[in-house]
Design a protein that fits this description.
about 750 residues, seven-stranded antiparallel sheet, globular, about 35% helix
């Protein structure tokens, strides 16, 4: 009898629990009692969102749920409601995922928000992951049983942009990560940033109306506009009107300074800037006047470099302030290492609620270089969020850069939810994207960041170079450890060509750093040449193999650019092979004393011996180049004793946007006593500076002649003056030289 009672009570209890089970069984073993219902006046976009849910449920459980509208739904079936009726009250940008009884509701304030809600549901509750356009994880399940859900989320950063081709070229991936698939959504094409020269092109106006442009000293220069000139204001207004007329779908146009700091200093402009406490004063007053003519549009302008400090005048309600963090040290969070920017952010936030952040997350002079700033992404985005920035543009490199997929993924996740755990995101991505190799790539990321954190004085600059870090987080012993980690990563996935390819791409940063360390000849292991037992010089086979792998990997992944100046990977490979050939050449100048007759500045520790140290300069002026600003370069090389020579060669660098030009000419003279010099000749610049000159280039100024006896060689490189049409007109230009080769 007691046993019968016990069985009866157990049966009643089970029945009671099952009857009150409020879990949702979406499908089980290929069958479902659910249909997807598109609410209200379903738009094409909402039906597409419903189809996305249908598609992924089919992938997960091989079950197809019908999609119906409200008028066609079956009373006998449970529902997954998609969309948002006009009467449903959601905050702007809000998403809702909620269960009620046996029904599931997936809502978004807008059509796009609904799509975001679908992807959030698939990721958060069904375990789907999208690591890159070609890498996702879709679980296979025989059933889906959901516990009750009441999830409501409103992103605090409402326009989220990661400057990555992964999103721009793959709209689905952008939606999966909830970022824009345009770098400048809503903007007029061709008028997105740095627009002054577009409104008043120098070619059209400068000769006849120099007064339209910036007064610098006693000269008007077409670097910026004179913002107190009424005719300039009218021309800009007319231009903006024409742009909106040609692009009626656009709602934003940029009225913003060009990319230089040569703003107008005429009496009228200077008076306003003095009253406002910042050169942003003339800018805001000018832009406000433009904005007044277009009350239904947004006029965007920059708070950038000389205009970064807030004015006293409030921007008009339809003026968008784009605040840029270009100067900041990336070695630590902005709030710790760039307090001036943080103060300016707070200041603009006190003036307007319409602030867009333009942040920078890669090294623009070396896209592929190791750039250990990942640990700053979360606190920086939180800083922007906490200061009411609703629009954040993270200028990742559009083209592939170091750890491109990882950076794109993590930045997007943090923009959607700045409270996301960075460590968890790193583990999630490295394990999901690199498979078994992920543990080693994660170890590399952790190690290089911890090494940078030990060096409290290191300034991690957007326009830096790996050579700056060869005494820090890229020390030779660390390069060896990084290489070992990536070797292990490749080995552990050797049976998967797809994962090996991903690892090879991930290691490009370290491979590039090793190539540059070898070019600089930082030690016997990392050098371009080695000597065999017979003391014969030969090219370092390890470097040759590394260069071949580097070129093959970049080609295989369609990586074409080394930096923002347009220096291509192909040019890098050609220049590097040339450096290998030069390193093998006999050089009577190597290690010899050299004296500079004119004063170098800043770079290469201002030490002229860099010209004879055997290390070769790369595409960045940080990398072993001796710099001269605003003056000619004149040096005398002492060969130590009289000897016969036949050739002299010296390399020069050009980076035009940084005012680094090839010399107009280079002359070579010889002497036996360092007093009386005989000129051998002059080599003119084969590519005189023009507007369309190559932005990033290395040229050798070579001279061949019959055998001559000499001990001293004088070299003079004549500075190319900054032309009036250059954005740095009025500033002195640079000459950068490296490695004298004498044979």
């Amino acid at each position: 009898m007691p046993r019968i009672v016990s069985l009866f009570l157990t049966t009643v209890l089970v029945f009671h629990v099952s009857c009150n089970d409020n879990r949702l069984r979406i499908f089980e073993n290929g069958k479902s009692d659910y249909e997807i219902v598109v609410l209200g006046e379903g738009t094409e976009s909402q039906y597409r969102s419903a189809e996305l849910l249908q598609e992924y449920l089919q992938k997960i459980g091989e079950v197809v749920l019908d999609i119906v509208d409200e008028n066609s739904q079956e009373a006998a079936k449970h529902k997954v409601y998609i969309g948002n009726r006009n009467g449903d009250s959601l905050e702007s940008n809000q998403i809702v995922i909620r269960t009620k009884g046996k029904d599931l509701f997936i809502f978004g304030h807008s059509d796009l928000d609904t799509r975001y809600a679908i992807y959030e549901f698939l990721e958060r509750y069904l375990g789907c992951k999208w690591y890159a356009p070609d890498a996702m994880k879709i679980p296979s399940k025989s059933s889906i049983l959901l516990e009750p859900i009441d999830y409501v989320y409103t992103p605090e950063i409402t326009t989220r942009t990661v400057h990555s081709k992964l999103f721009y070229e793959n709209k689905s991936f952008a939606d999966q990560q909830k970022v824009t698939y345009e770098s400048f959504p809503y903007y007029v094409p061709g008028a997105r940033v740095h627009t002054f020269h577009r409104f008043l092109p120098e070619e059209k106006f400068y000769t006849s109306h120099p007064e339209y442009y910036a007064l610098r000293g006693d000269q008007r220069l077409p670097t910026q506009l004179c913002l107190t000139n009424e005719k300039v204001l009218q021309i800009v207004k007319d231009s903006v009107s024409a742009l909106f007329a040609r692009n009626p779908q656009a709602s934003v146009v940029s009225v913003s300074q060009d990319d230089n700091q040569r703003h107008c200093q005429c009496d009228a402009c200077s008076k306003i800037d003095g009253e406002e406490g910042s050169p942003s004063g003339t800018m805001i007053r000018f832009v406000n006047q433009v904005a007044a003519d277009f009350p239904d549009k947004t006029i965007s302008t920059l708070a950038y470099q000389y205009t970064r400090k807030p004015s006293k005048t409030k921007p008009a309600d339809n003026v968008l302030i784009t605040l840029c963090s270009i100067e900041c040290d990336r070695a630590a969070p902005i709030a710790e290492k760039c307090t001036d920017f943080a103060n300016d952010l707070e200041g603009w936030g006190n003036l307007t609620n319409n602030v867009r952040i333009w942040d920078y997350t890669t090294q623009f002079t070396n896209f592929l270089a190791p750039f250990p700033n990942i640990h700053t992404l979360r606190p920086n985005i939180q800083l922007f969020r906490d200061n009411n920035a609703k629009w954040v543009f993270e200028q990742h490199s559009h083209n592939p850069s170091e750890l491109f997929e990882l950076r794109s993924y993590i930045t997007a996740k943090l923009l959607w939810n700045p409270e996301s755990d960075l460590e968890a995101l790193l583990v999630e991505f490295t394990e999901g994207y690199y498979g078994k190799a992920g543990i080693y790539i994660k170890a590399y990321v952790d190690l290089i960041h911890s090494e940078l954190e030990k060096d409290e004085d290191f300034f991690l600059f957007l326009y830096g170079d790996p050579s700056e870090a060869f005494g820090s987080y890229l020390r030779p012993e660390l390069l060896t450890r990084y290489m070992e980690l990536f070797d292990k990563a490749e080995n552990v996935v050797a049976d998967s060509p797809e994962l090996v390819a991903r690892v090879k791409k991930a290691r490009l940063g370290v491979d590039y750093a090793v190539l540059e360390a070898s070019r600089k000849n930082i030690n016997e292991k990392y050098s371009l040449v080695i000597t065999d037992d017979g003391r014969t010089k030969k090219t370092n086979p390890r470097v040759v193999s590394l260069l071949d792998n580097f070129m093959e990997t970049t080609s295989g992944h369609n990586i074409g650019l080394m930096n923002e100046m347009g220096f291509t990977v192909a040019e890098y490979g050609t220049n590097y092979k040339s450096a290998l050939e030069i390193a093998l050449k006999p050089n009577k100048a190597k290690g010899k004393k050299i004296v500079t007759l004119t004063r170098p500045k800043k770079y290469a520790d201002e030490n002229p011996l860099v010209l004879t140290d055997g290390a070769l300069g790369g595409s960045s002026f940080y990398a072993n180049w001796l710099g001269y600003e605003g003056n000619d370069m004149e040096v005398v090389l002492d060969l130590g004793e009289p000897m016969e020579i036949r050739t002299i060669s010296l390399a020069f660098l050009q980076v035009t946007n940084h005012i680094v030009f090839l010399p107009s000419s280079v002359s070579y003279s010889i002497s036996l006593d360092n007093k009386d010099f005989r000129k051998l000749g002059t080599v003119p610049n084969p590519y005189p500076l023009k507007k369309d000159s190559k932005v990033n280039d290395i040229q050798y100024f070579d001279m061949d002649f019959g055998p001559v006896q000499t001990r001293y060689i004088k070299i003079k490189a004549s500075n190319t003056k900054t032309p009036y049409w250059h954005h740095a007109a009025g500033l002195p230009s640079w000459i950068f030289a490296d490695e004298i080769i004498v044979n």
